Each structure stands twice: as structure tokens, then as C-alpha cells.
Amino acid sequence: MQWTQEAEDAVKKVPFFVRKKVRARVEKEARLTGRNTVTLAVVKTARKKFLDNMSSEIKGYQVDACFGAGGCPNRTAESENLLARLEKLLQSENLLDFLKANVPGDLKYHHEFRVTISDCPNACSQPQIKDIGIIGASEPAITDQPCSMCGNCVEVCRDRAVQLDEDAEIPIVDGQLCMQCGLCAKECPTGTIVDGKKGYRILLGGKLGRHPRLAEPLPGIYTEDEVLAIVKKCIGYYKANSRNGTRFAELYSGPCIPGRNQLNRQAG
Asked: What global pTM score does this model have?
């Protein structure tokens, strides 16, 4: 669909992280009125309808994902099943009624509890700024297969976490630098580097707004079931402590949420 320059300029003023959704909403408004071109008038009409109907569109939570199965070559995890299970869990928690009972005035999108999944460390779905961010992870493992010293693993690693030990003729992975993206295992022709433990990393307590805060990572890699148990525990903590629309990020700090072992024990 064509856009006039005035319409393009208006949408550029929208924050980048919601710009794609805004464009889709505006183009839908244009199609509903039989237009093939988006004008400034269409943008203004879509904006007014959005503001007038915001409270009716709020469901209490947001759950997002990145490109996933759409063809991303960097994909570390296949999260479609986890995404469906997360949606079901969030629906069952009835967060909309909780917000209605605890937030004075009309609900806004920023009141919603936000969970997102990224299938790789590129983090296109911005897990660092959500209440709960979930990132696909694959920990590299070194096998007994002889290394050809081809250097593919070194070249593909964007974080300089892999080096070749010329004397021992094996690759060395620096666990402090490794982002667990799995690319080195994909590029290894000899099977010297393979996927070890696979699952998800979890980040807690991110947000934007007036006082932005980056989410903090929990240590370790988690299975799908463990991810769901941790999300459920975090929502329980949020419900027990949030008042007047306080975001999870404002409540969360390391000592307040139990660590990995305690979370898993309580969830189990």
C-alpha cells in the first residue's frame, strides 16, 4: 500500500518498537474505507479510533515472539509450542480482572504484564525490556571427534568466544563470552563442536518508560516446563505485591524473587 510523505512523517514520530503495529493498524483503516493510499487523514482517524477504544482492546497481558519459523537463519530454539503454552497460562491467570481491581482509572497498554520469546540471542522481540524475557539457548559441547582446525567456528562466532588451540588441535569456548546461539555447532564440519544443553535463558524485570530498566538474567538454561513454572511463580509474586498498577520491574529485585533452585522447588 502506498503512503503519502505526510503520513510517513507522522508515523515516524511513533516509538520504533511499536511502529510496525501502528503501520498495520493504519493500513487496515485505509482498506476498510476503500483506499489504496495512506494519507495523513487516515493516520489521524486510526489514531482517534485507537485512543477511543484502547480500554476495550486490553486483555491484561501481552505475549510476543520474534520471526520464529518464518525463516530466521539464526534460530536456536523452536518456540511455537512454548508460545502456545504461555498464552494458555497467561489467560488462566486472569490478569485483566486483577488489573481492573488494582489500577485506578482506565487501563492502558503499559499496565499489561509483558512476556516475550526470542528464538536466538539476537533478541528481535526485545526480551531485555519486558517483564519476562525468554531467549532460546544452545550450549556448545566439545566431543572427541578430531578437529580439522578449519576455523569455521571462530569465523562464525560474533562474540569472539571460540578460539583454536593449535597445540591440542581443539576448539576452546569461553563460557563468559559465549551467548549460546549454537552457530558454532551448526558450522562445525567434523562434529567436534555439537549442541550440548538446549533450552531457554530467562530475563526478569525489564521495562521502558520514565524510569527504564533492563531485565536481569537468571543463571542457567531452562526446559520448557521450567520456563512455564518460573513464569507462573513470577505472576504469583506480581499479583501478591502489585498495587495501583505497579509494574513487575518496579517490584523485582534479586533478593525478592527466589533463585533458580528455590523457584523450581516451589513450582514443582
From this structure: 0.78
